[in-house]
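hey m, so remember when u said the tokens were messed up on ur end? i reran from scratch. heres the input so u can diff it against urs
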Amino acid sequence: MDIFTPQTPMPTREEALAQREWYVVDASGKVLGRLASEIAKRLRGKHKPHFAPHLDLGDFIVVVNAKKIKLTGKKWDQKVYWRHSGYMGGLKLRTARQMLETKPEELVRLAVKRMLPKNRLGRKLLKKLKVYAGPEHPHQAQNPKPLEL
């Protein structure tokens, strides 16, 4: 055997696209951080035996009931989400409780986004996450399998 021959088979892009699945996750009663880490792992494809860090091998995840998510401790009032417009005095602060009342989908999406790589691959992976506040979602045609986390 030649010493320059690769020993580990690397999955191709076509093989990765053929093995993608759709899963639906019910977030009611789940702790946000624990749920987000499992979702990030599934989006990235780390649960598959042919994982490669530079490829998008993960599955599509549909999260329903994001409005019924839980946080532990005093995080509802102490966890602060902030953004800045770039202008003087342009800092916007919102607590987790305010985020849950206005945009519960954003609460879950941001938690998962911050657990993904901060590059082109991470932005591509985030597009495979679909989050909905209630129990209905428009992805019935993909036949998503229920995923217990």
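this time it looks ok to me. The chain has a mean pLDDT of 93. if urs says something different then somethings off w ur setup not the seq
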